[in-house]
Amino acid sequence: MIRRAKTAKVYIEVTTDDEDKQGDAEDDSDDNADDSWHPEQNVSNKKSVARKPAKPREPKPKKEPKPKREPKPKAERKPRAPRVPKGKNKEPPTDAPTVQQPEPQIPAAMEAGASSEREGPQEPLRVKEERLSFPMPISCTPSGSNFTSSTNQQSQVVKKEEPEEDFTFDEPAVKKQKTSTASQGSRPIRQAQSVDVFGEGLHMNWDPIQVLAQRTGVEQWVCVNVAQLLREENTIPFLVRYRKQMINYMDADALREVQVALEELCGLAKKCQSVIQTLKKDGVLTSELEVSLKNCRTPDELDHVYSPYKKGSKLSKARRAKELGLEPVALALLQNPQTLNLHSYVKPGTEGLSTIEEVATGVEQILAHMIAKDTDTLNHVRSLCDRSAVMLESSVSKTALKEQQQQQQRGGEQKSKPKDIDKFQLYSAFSCSIHRVQPHQTLAINRGENLKILTVKVKVPDAIKNDFSRWCVNVRWRPKGFAQPELMKILLDAVEDSYKRLILPLLCRGYRTKLTAVAEKESVAMFVRNLRQRLLTCPVRGRAIMGVDPGYRHGCKLAILSSVGQILHTDVVYLHSSGGKNEAGKLRHLLLKYSCQTVVIGNGTACRETEAFFADLIKQRFFQPLDVSYW
After folding, report:
1. Are 322 and 286 in contact (CB under 8 A)?
2. Fewer Cβ neighbours under 10 Å: the N or C end of the chain?
3. Which positions fall inside the YqgF/RNase H-like domain (predicted)?
């Protein structure tokens, strides 16, 4: 009898608990079959595993061979039919040679799983084993110690599967993203490209979009979209209605604020360009002056820089000193003070240079002008003021008091209308912080100042002056070399003169301008609120009203208001068509439902026809039991 060798193929696969139980049951049945096929073989492990090569052993001394016993004859058994695995209907060819398989290779996915097990505890990986058996001829079985006809060679074969497409059950299918700037649902639309806000070749040394965002509190990408849309001559109602996503759902009032701020920046850029052209024609434009003009961000700063160069105005002290040739001396005091000698610039008989004191005064005036026009210096002094308590004070002017005394002396003789000082009694000795002044107080103070009844001052603490002088001498305008005490005194006097004569008036004008702008804006908002409340007041007290907006083609619009002005119902009826009788029944139902006895008809298209329609229904007592009347 020829015994047929069986080969086993094993593949590794991640299985579930149910599949694992089913695989164990199949393995038990296969083991029973092996026991019946090889009764003399005692298998210790039920599941087949790859055997490791045995270690070489030392040869033992040979013993005398014992006589072999003859085996007892056994009954012949019929060969067992080969087991066909699930999913395979055909047997492999019997003449295929059995080749020793290499050691199983672990797939990349399992290697990744193994690495993840080192990182943290995960669920252990279960391995499913399946053995395939089919008859093999003895001639095809290789000879050797590792292969025998009475044993089964078992090896692991890794099952290679085709890569599947990436798919997850919990995530939706990826949609194609739109690349155009069209509206995508209700999400805001952002435009990455910048926009030329000023146009006409106007350029400033600051970003207009960034300044606009800081002043209005709106995001920069919204400012870019608004500037682009307004530049395309779109109106505010159009933007609010049809470009909601591009303006981030801003209302009309907020959008109008952005428009006003943008117009102010554009006007400032145009004015700056005009000033530069004027100074260029006069021949007084320099590169430093042009940079100072383009650094201005408010009209007050622009006037502050341009005022010394206006036509008809007196030459400033700094310009007169520059004409005397003292500008190199001022620069040398800052750049190279150790080699500066003021006595060499004294010229007897020349006005402004005759003595050492006049030379020092001219250098001081040039330095004061340079300090007052420096952008970093102005930003620093503004930051100091923001951290301090700047006060707004008002009092009765001397002119008003003098006129009041004269009128009292004259008695009844009054040639002109006397000034009513009593109206501004609250502001005769007024003092409040800049950050706490109310809009109505600002308007009242401005009105009293225009009538020359009040005198208004912005009081800045003296501590700001001391801190500013210390910062200028030790940090910003500190000489780059050793300076003699006489030169340091000139620098300190220049800083104090610049603060008192140039910087402080600029700060006061800036505060007054800002307060006035806020007050005017709030006054308009207050007027809008009062007017809205006035318009929403019920015209007839204690009665519900039906308002009718007459029309032909598009029908008559209805609105029923309660006795307190609340909207109860809105509808459209077609009174001047063939179905006018049905619409009359609808009107009667609404009037009875809301107990409305007053109808107000608008003065517009088809107003006379609508009035005649209601008059006929009232004449026929169609709305009984209600006593309906129209206006």
Report:
1. no
2. N
3. 543-631
